[in-house]
Each structure stands twice: as structure tokens, then as C-alpha cells.
Input
Amino acid sequence: MKVDVLLGLQWGDEGKGKIVDVLTPGYDVIARFQGGPNAGHTLEFNGKKYILRSVPSGIFQGGKVNVIGNGVVLDPLLFKQEAEALAASGHDLTKRLSISKKAHLILPTHRILDAAYEAAKGEGKIGTTGKGIGPAYTDKVSRNGLRVGDILHDFEEKYTVAKARHERILKSLNYSYDIKELEAEWFEALEYLKTFNLIDSEHMINHMLKEGKSVLAEGAQGTMLDIDFGSYPFVTSSNTVCAGCCTGLGVAPRNIGEVYGIFKAYCTRVGSGPFPTELHDDTGETICRVGKEFGSVTGRKRRCGWIDLVALKYSIMINGVTKLIMMKSDVLDGFETIKACVAYNIKGNEVTEFPYEVDDSLEPVYVELPGWQTEMTKMQNEDEFPEEFNAYLTFLEEELGVPVKIVSVGPDREQTIIRYQED
Ligand code: GDP
Ligand code: IMO
Ligand code: MG
Output
């Protein structure tokens, strides 16, 4: 069997959590391969809403193996809080979640460093989630990181060395902080972490593939936040693209199967950085209000704009997307017309390939399509789609060259329409 990958094609928050949950019944294993508690994946079913940060979105469908892979950075304290809240609501994870010993730890001082670096950048700040993601991945790459497996032996010694190094940096930045309480809780959380199945997940996943088990890899963030291909430096610190699944789980490239690329019918971004189709007008406000576009982790207002096909094509190319999933279609229900950006005008030149530099001189070139002005949230089947909506889908499929297989018309698990057209 092969590993299917589901990943975001925009700037995150496309609705990955919801769709992983919907697809989970068709898989044996659900695995996270990168990112950490910067993610906020929302699932809704039976009138309840859950927001997952480090835990894979496969945990609500019984009998599945869930894995936090080696490419993830894990904050034991945030993980404990998340897992305990889930247990309190009747979803005990200890029997169904395995964690890679090679996943890197987010230390309390990583969180402080994240804040200190942002403060030092002033106006130029990234607008991170403040979870210590950048500093933790920095330590991994500079070979100073601590891993989940380290908590099993002589951890205090390694921790003391890492903390002292961080403290020297914080001193040089003149950043004042107090981590005593946080540190004590963090250490308690290590004991909790030890109660989980800590494994070499690359072996587990490859054994399962050999046994014919199916695996769904759940991406976090989005392609435009990828450390290599995103709008650097306004990105996260991991490879959010499909290749990140190979390194983040130990899966060979030839064992990648379907690549599900997920996008919103419009576009959002949270944090700083370029966003060519951003709307600073009433339309942007309406999308934000109707789409409830506020960060699921930080509560920050998300910036909103029209769909950007230049960026989407780029994401599809980098990831080798085989199937598209369009989310939040219902948010556009009320619009008379809908715009889609098909090119960028850069100093008089029309550009259709995502450029190296995206600055204020860039102007999106739009195509305008008729809106469907029909409520879609209760639709169950694609036969019910209004004509204008079908025209929008056909337009997107022709532009992007990949079929749209799933359409989401609301936040609930049930508000999902799987299209039945042939490949
Ligand atoms: P993720 O990080 O990619 O999992 O996405 P988030 O959970 O951060 O953000 C997606 C938001 O949109 C969540 O609040 C979801 O409940 C909500 N959502 C998902 N699909 C739909 C949809 O089709 N329509 C509407 N209106 N909301 C949706
Ligand atoms: P999910 O998985 C949206 C953004 C932050 C910031 C930048 C770097 O829910 O889609 P970081 O804390 O990673 O160093 O922040 O990346 N960011 C996200 N934006 N959704 C996410 O995750 C994000 N994770 C990080 O806002 O701009
Ligand atoms: Mg999110």
C-alpha cells in the first residue's frame, strides 16, 4: 500500500482537520508529519466542536492507529493539556496514539525565544503563533535539539545544557522572562508523555504498509507557509509540502499515493507577509464575518481575499496534487459575483508563474464569475449544485488541471459532498 497525503495549498486553515476526519474511515493509520501546536485543526460532528493541535485528526473514528511522526515538534505541556481535554470528553488517546521518539521537543525556553525574536523584529515580525516552533526547528537543524526519545534517559543533563544556551541568547537580546512555573508544569508533562507508546514510527509505518494497511498523512499549515517554497521569511519552519511527508514519516517517495490538495473557495492568511489577493474593503470584511475567519489557536482575525490561482497552481505543482478538495463554498453563497485571480500584473507585465518577489507593486488580474446566490449548507449531493456553482467548479478544474473530488458546504462532518465523476 501507499501513503496518501492531505495537505493545505494556501496559507493554512483550509479545513484539513475536518476532511482528515471525513476520510479516516477509509484508512488504518492517520499520521502527522510536520509542524506542531502551531496547527489548529477544527472538527465538528454531533453538535460538538474540537480543535486539535498536535494530535492527528483521525482519533475520533474508532479503531484507527494515530501517529505523531518524527518530523513533528512536540510541546509536552500543550500535548498533555490537549490529550487530557480529549480524555475528559470521552476520547482517551493512550491506546490509540503512538509518538515518534525522533520527534523534537519544544522546551519552555523555545516559547520564550519565539517571543523574544518576534519582539526584536519589531515591525518586521512574522506574526508567529508564539508556540516556539521556529526555535525548536532551529535547534533540530543546528543539531542542538532534544527529542522525545531523550526523555527516557538522563534527560535533566541534556535539558540543562540546552536551557543554558537559550538563556545566553535571551540575555543577549535583553529579554526578561520568568519560566519557573511553566518549567515545573512542563516537567510534569514529561511524565505524562512517558505513558504513551513512544516508538520508531518509521518502522511501524513501513511495516504496516507492507502488511497492506492504508495510511493517511495529515499536513499542517499550508504550502505557501513552507520553509522553502512559501513567502519566505513569512513562513513556518518546516516543509509543509508533500516531500515533508517523506522526511517527516520515513516514507520513500515511491510509496506516496494520492495527494489531496485542500483549498478554500477564497483565500485567507493569518500573520504577516505578502497576500496578493487580500481585500481591505467590505467584501473582505463580509468573507471574514460569514466564514468566521478567526484563528483557531490564537483567535487572531484572518486576512481575507479572493482565490489566487497563480499561487494555487504553484502549490499543485510543488506537491504533485492528484485530487482537489474545495472548502467553505457556502461562505460565498451570498455574493452576486465572485472573483478569481488568474495572473499578476507586475510593473506592466502579466505573470502567471508565482514569482520570487511578491511586493506592493504586484496587482492581481481577476476573472469575474457569476455567484450562485443559493444556500448550499444543506446540500447532500452534487446533483443539487446550482448551475453557477458548477460553472465555478469547471472553471477551477480547467485552470488548475486537477479534478475537484470533494466539496465542503459547512463545518460539520456531514456537510461534505464527495463527487462521483470518474478520474
Ligand atoms: P485547518 O487548520 O486546515 O484544519 O482549518 P481550521 O480548523 O483552522 O479552519 C477551518 C475553519 O473552517 C474551522 O473553523 C472549520 O470548522 C471551518 N470549516 C471547515 N469547512 C467548512 C465549510 O465548508 N464551511 C464553513 N462555513 N466552515 C468550514
Ligand atoms: P494550520 O495547521 C495558519 C503561520 C503563523 C505565522 C507563520 C509562522 O491550522 O493550518 P509559526 O508559529 O509556525 O512559527 O508561525 O505561520 N501559521 C499558520 N497559519 N494555520 C496554521 O496551521 C499555521 N501555523 C503557522 O500565523 O504567520
Ligand atoms: Mg488551522
User: Anything to note?
Assistant: Residues 155-172 form the longest helix (18 residues).
